[in-house]
Give the backbone structure.
Amino acid sequence: MPTSAEILAGLTSIANHAARVSIGWHVVVAIILVALFMGWRPSRAMAGAFLGVPLASVAVFAMAYGNPFNAAVFTIGTITLFALALGGLQTPVQPGPWWARAMGFAMLAFAWFYPHFLTGSPVRYLYAAPMGVIPCPSLAMAIGFALLGGGVGPRAWRLTLAALGLVFGLFGVARLGVMLDLGLLAGAATLASAAWRPRTARVGRQIPPAAA
């Protein structure tokens, strides 16, 4: 098991060497937010599968930079999310309750400006914070969109993503001393809590548990 210093050095290396990829993820997130604002509503299956992509990206960089544990966990997480999402409903995603949307936007802001590991001018955090290349901001991004979309996938999908957020958030705080990752813990806990709440239709009618 690498030491904390070695893990932090590896994450710093990824964040800086893969800055162009992170910029690409900022562009993708911006496009999706604009599309959602304009009324686009992907199917729950499509949205759930897409939110596995940033995790796959993290797995690739973890393997390339010598972190087989993160590579294995994120590969398994990606496959699990894809499988659970594609077996879910084809109905369009619906906005979550106000408290979930508020936390969703907070998590997306957390991921967008994640002020750790990237070196150089603080201005770089406006467009190159390490989304899609290291674990915590990538999980925060996925959790943020999941909360905006009322959970997106079936309950098992939501709990899988929440579990990843809880594990890596706790690891970041307790092992690496990155207290910033308390934000990821909060978002993951919110998603886990939301997974056990019954979905409700927009007119206030409860959706049967089998469809949740």
